[in-house]
User: What shape does this take?
Amino acid sequence: MNTAVPANRIESTGTVVASNDSTSTDALVSRITAVRLSLRPSEQRVASYVLGQPNRVAHMAIAELAEAVGVTDPTIARFCQALGFTGFKAFKVALAKSLATGVPYVHTDVSAQDSSADVIAKVFDRSIATLIAMRNQVDPKVFERAAEAIARARKVEFYGVGNSGVVAMDAQHKFFLLGMHTVAYNDPHWQVQSAALLTHEDVVVAISRTGRTRDMIQTCELAQRAGATVIAVTERASQLAKLADIALAVDVDEDPDVYSPMVGRLAQLTLVDALAVAVALKRGPELQETLRKAKETLIAKREKEGEMLTPLTLAARSRWI
Assistant: This one.
């Protein structure tokens, strides 16, 4: 991305992503998830095995791991180097430290053979583990820049397709209640047309699980050419993250072909919630009056205790008649 952008552009200092220092162990699982798809097929098998059985891998020799996965020792070494480690020994030390933090990581998808009890346990455990991992991997400085850019924007547009489109609509509703000029588009044709009309005072929040959707990337490029600031909520190592001015990493390991993606959407929604709270704090006390007015409009639509609502009473209460 060309960082030579107009001086008056919001947060126009170039792409910002969370640190991926190879000495960090707190987000090791997230790092493996982020780079897995960029690895060779044999190395991807190693990554999947490590994610599935991290506690066992932490106590295995390199030859044992190679045999368990069905690859060679050099493949294990290349996998470790791809993560920034000098070798398997250094990787195991980092993995052991990461596991010692006590963050539960559940890498088991629901299967057709699972009982209801299994489904409940797996879905809740994995959701909780994902949110804990997300909390630990979000860079506060990057998050602050995103919140500041949104708070100062003339208009904020949220883009997403598929499941991410649902998150975009939810985000638009949250920021709309903060008294901001917001809009959400989940159709690529509408996205690209709207992006072309943005200015340096505007912000685009592009939400994508993989960060590899061609339409989304092209739309964000167009928004940047128009002068807008692009904030990406996506995978750390994706093309969209590299393109964006501010990238909020959501590194979640899930197979989109197994039923419907769940934890990825949950991570996106929670990160958007945190952004909305941060922006609300920045907008100050005057926001309270805006929220009060919005809440008052809902009072007439709620049933009082012991009251039976009919179309007539609803109309009268809402002053339709």
